[in-house]
Amino acid sequence: MIATAVALPVALLVGVIVAAVTVSGNSTRPPEALGPVDAPAAESADCTSLLDSLPDSLGDYRSAELVEPAPAGARAWALDDDESEPVVLRCGLNRPDGFDIAAPLQVVNDVQWFEVSGAESGIDASTWYAVDRAVYVAVTIPGGSGPTPLQDASNAVSAALPQTPLDPAPLR
């Protein structure tokens, strides 16, 4: 009886502490290191508007800190574990290679996306380029992440950046 009287408050205290840590979202994950890419419009007003409007989460991925100096026009979201790859958004890129007048596009929440699969390079991720905005926006999503990160990113792109006519490369 005494053991129960002691164990019950201890178990309750442990449960409250675990719940508080879980709810606070504190992660031990280190900041994400992003390499430089050619993004000539990364500091444009359009990219600033988009970055300011991005949500704190894309599905199960939470906003992640970037290693400084962070590239302009970039943002990342990560799971709470230390092993998984992050979702990375980059704004202000050049037209993606392969985006020509014959390229297949997929519309997600009013944004037209061009997919570049990492499979040919042995990478378990796809990079999706928003190609119907004044600036090109790329979202790299690890394999197995499901559709929600791209859907949530599409909502932010659609809200922050007006749609513009496509500007694909000619066929070669």
Features:
DUF3515 domain-containing protein, alpha+beta, eight-stranded antiparallel β-sheet, single chain, disordered N terminus, DUF3515, 172 residues, globular, Protein Transport Mog1p, Chain A
What does this structure look like?
- This protein is α+β, with helices and mostly antiparallel strands.
- It has a domain at 45-160: Protein Transport Mog1p, Chain A (3-Layer(aba) Sandwich), CATH 3.40.1000.
- It has 3 helices and 8 strands, in the order ααββββββββα.
- It has helices at 2-24, 45-53, 148-160; strands at residues 57-58, 61-64, 74-78, 87-93, 106-108, 111-117, 125-130, 136-142.
- An 8-stranded antiparallel sheet has the order 1-2-3-4-8-7-6-5.
- Helix 2 packs across helix 3 (148-160).
- The longest helix is centred in the N-terminal third of the chain and has 23 residues, at 2-24.
- The radius of gyration is 20 Å and the shape is globular.
- Mean pLDDT is 88; it is low at 3-25.
Distance from first to last alpha carbon: 82 Å
Structural class assignment: alpha+beta
For the secondary structure, the number of strands is: 8
Residue-averaged pLDDT = 88
The percent of residues in helical segments reads 25-40%
How would you sum up the global shape? globular
The helix count comes to 3
Q: Can I get a quick summary?
A:
With 172 residues, the protein is α+β, with helices and mostly antiparallel strands. 26% of the residues lie in helices and 24% in strands. Strand 7 (125-130) and strand 8 form a beta hairpin.
